[in-house]
Amino acid sequence: MPSPRRVRQHITEERIVEAALALVHDEPSGSFTLAKLAKRLGISAPSLYSHVPSKQYIVERVRSRVVADIDCSAFADRPWDEALAAWARSYADAFVQHPETIPLLTTNPVQAPELIAQYEVVAQALTAVGWPREEILPVLTVVESFVMGSALDLVAPVEMVQPAPDDATPLLRELLAEAAGDATRARRTFDLGLEIIVDGLRERLQRVTGA
Q: CA-to-CA distance for 152 and 156, rounded, in angstroms?
């Protein structure tokens, strides 16, 4: 068995991040703690601080890993509304790959430079077309909130609503029966919701700018 010192020599920041992501995947309903992470790595919790400065730093490195595939390049050459929709789709696709991270990442302040840089791109694009400054962050939050909820729906069982046999819900039962086994429901729901949000934002921009 390798000595504790030899084990610690093989602990790298990258390995810590990989272990943290694996831990969140394996225990999606459990709390993410340094004690659990250290146990997974075979070291003591205090030893982690020899490699990373804090728990928040690890969480943000996990966020960086998850958001690495989000593409905001559409803002460079497409109208703001089309670009926002493309960004939202890419955002959702990234979190569909790691839905277990959503509870952790949505309850910790965003510091990952990769995502912060994308916020800047979106904010610049919205500012350029006349969005009021006080509404830019709310617009970002609306889109992100929808994306996170939709990512969970996109990986949920196809038949999530299951009334009890004695429930007096005839119309709901008919609708559920018509949709039974439809594997595209969540994706179509996402597309509909995104269209409604973007249409609403487009109308609001016209209203507040008088354009």
A: 6
Please state, in angstroms and rounded to a whole number, the distance separating the CA atoms of residues 104 and 78.
Answer: 33
Which amino acid is residue 97, in one-letter code?
Q
Q: Assess if residue 62 is contained within a domain.
A: no
- The parent domain of residue 22 ranges over 4-52
Q: Are residues 145 and 89 in the same domain?
A: yes
102 and 139 part of one domain: yes
Query: What is the chain's pLDDT, residue by residue, as a tens digit (211 residues)?
Result: 444 444 444 889 999 999 999 999 998 766 889 999 999 999 998 899 989 999 999 999 999 999 999 999 999 999 999 999 999 999 999 999 999 999 999 999 999 999 999 999 999 999 999 999 999 999 999 999 999 999 999 998 878 788 888 788 989 988 988 888 777 889 999 999 999 999 999 999 999 998 6
Question: Whole-model pTM above 0.85?
Answer: yes
Structure tokens at 47: 């030893």
With both helix axes pointing from N to C terminus, report the angle between 55-67 and 80-96 in degrees, rounded to the nearest 10: 110
Using CA atoms, how far apart are residues 134 and 10, in angstroms rounded to an integer?
48
CA distance 47 to 195: 49
- Residue 60 domain flag: no
102 near 152, Cβ under 8 Å? yes
Q: Among all chains, which residue has been given the structure tokens 């990989």?
A: 18
113 φ, ψ (degrees, to nearest 5)? -60, -30
